[in-house]
Amino acid sequence: MTITSAQQDAFIRRLAAAASYFCCLIAFYIDIGQDMGAKYFMPILLPVIAALVLTQYATRVSIFSRAALPNLITSLGWSMTFPLLYAWTYNSVWYQSKICFDFVVGTAAFVLLMSIESVLTRLGHVKISSLFMALLNFACLAIPFIQWVYYCLFWHCLTPASLMALYLTNYNESIDFIQSNLGLVPTLLIFAGFALFIYLAYQAHLHFARLTEDDEASALRLSTLGVLTFLALWAHSYYIPQTSFAELWEDVTTYVTQTQEYSIGHDERYDSLIIDTENTLAAKAPGTVILIIGESASRNYMKAYTPEFPYENTPWLNEKLANAESGFINYYNAYSSWSQTVPVLQRALTEQSQYNGKEFFESASILDVAKKAGYETWWFSNQGRYGQYDSAITLVAKTADHATWTDDSYTFTDKYDEALLPYLTQIDPSKNNFIVLHIMGSHIYYNNRYPAAFDKFQTTEEDSRATSTPSYANSILYTDYVVSQVFDYAQKHLNLQAMVYFSDHGENLEISHNPDVFSFDMVRIPFWVYISPGYQAAMPRHSAALYDHQHRYFTNDMLYDTISGLLNAPSNRYNPEQDFASFSYSFNRQNLTTMLGQHKLTEDPDGGPEEPIE
């Protein structure tokens, strides 16, 4: 068989284009400090170049032509996005093998899309097939697009934590996230950009059709397209699960799978819990204990904790704290263990903490302890059930004797927190009751969290009412009111013995509480305890410890042991060194951490003084 000079020239052009594609991407990886490594790129050198040469031969379209541009962009999106954003975020190298997998998946996507388009073009219906290919390009680029949008918002690549938030989020929270971080105009511009991409891709695919519509496809070319399609699909099935993004996603799905194990082993864990019921608070001072879980409250922006804060947004709490005999004890150096709700509360509500290495699905909960200590347990929530699966919070909540959501669906409610107040009337005051109230508090949008009557502090014209400091202060003011109503009702009607309030995490008023852009105001939280005269008489040592610890440092992942101590319900699943209500509490600013051990509390430049350990 004689090869003409035209065929030789065509082969050289295709080979040069394939080699340029390969070399340019390798050079790109090296330039951003993400060198793939010879041991990874050399074995794929010949297969990749061969596939690209054959793709150009079978489709008769060059890699770097306008007709192939949408497919090339799709390839580069997968090959370049994560390594580049990781390098920009951390100034560090990612796993070389993962970069290789991203490269192969991106290249295989180009081969597959070119092969599919070539076949569709030959079937006719050019406009329909061009539109289909444009939409297919957009769909294939959805994950790179998400990564780029996220990076442009937070200047940080996606991490398991941010993916977890995306995975467990719901429609209403997604809308709040978009509104608070983007705003209407940028959101519209992004969608306009997407529409423009689809239109330009459609025009490029029409050009592809014009280049190939008169081409008589030989059996060899069609066979080559078939082989290339098969190989590209095989490459995707093998390499996609090993890519950078897939590894992050696997971390998230593994977590969700493990949290589901919590329900499976719960009865066995509960049965293993051993508590001396004759000496518990329920036995010595019968009545009600209430735990209120705040949302996105930062003590930086609360008058009771930060006197220089310009807004009087905690009048009830200030009044209670001003009375030395009120039984209210404020803690000025409390922190959250993380800056997002689910990771925080799965630790605060169970044995799991930053310091003990226990797993959530192997841990007992505060509800288990309260039940064993002689209480009827109640869970009332003004937050919807998270996401596709029950979150760790919901799994714990369902173990209560009674669990109710104001909006019993998998969405964020639009009800104000005072919607929880009528539920208190269901409770029998003659019984020992342990009540958990999970409020919406100051979750963004701040102005959505309080009724008009609490719009006391006005936003200036240049600030967004939804995310301004005055709106946030109003949300705290409303929380102060709701908590006061809970306290007043419980004290008058439920024989209140103790009440605890803490927030899941704090808030940065400019960037909310995203862990990828961490600042300490995201983890500085309010934490206070009320103990009645009856409690103080029945539990004098616990009471003394609680008063003594006002300036001690604490992270809320130790709440399980603290509640166990507060209820005087030590067990075989209790650590007194993590009990803030005990003189055995052994932690201080030097050995406490936040963000699951990533940051020491000594790094906080605004950390207050700590009283000496006795």
Automatic annotation (TrEMBL):
A molecular function annotated in GO for this UniProt entry is: phosphotransferase activity, phosphate group as acceptor
Q: Which GO terms describe its biological process?
A: lipopolysaccharide core region biosynthetic process
User: Topology in the membrane?
Assistant: Multi-pass membrane protein
Query: Cellular location of this protein?
Result: Cell membrane
Which UniProt key words apply to this protein? Cell membrane, Membrane, Transferase, Transmembrane, Transmembrane helix
Domain Sulfatase N-terminal stretches? 288-567
- Could you say which residues form the signal peptide? none
Any transmembrane segments, and where? Answer: 12-30, 36-55, 67-88, 94-116, 128-147, 182-202, 222-240
Upper lineage is: Bacteria, Bacillati, Bacillota, Negativicutes, Selenomonadales
Provide the species name.
Answer: Selenomonas ruminantium
Protein name (record) = Heptose-I-phosphate ethanolaminephosphotransferase
The record's section on InterPro entries has:
Alkaline_phosphatase_core_sf, PEA_transf_C, PEA_transferase, Sulfatase_N
Q: Which GO terms describe its cellular component?
A: plasma membrane
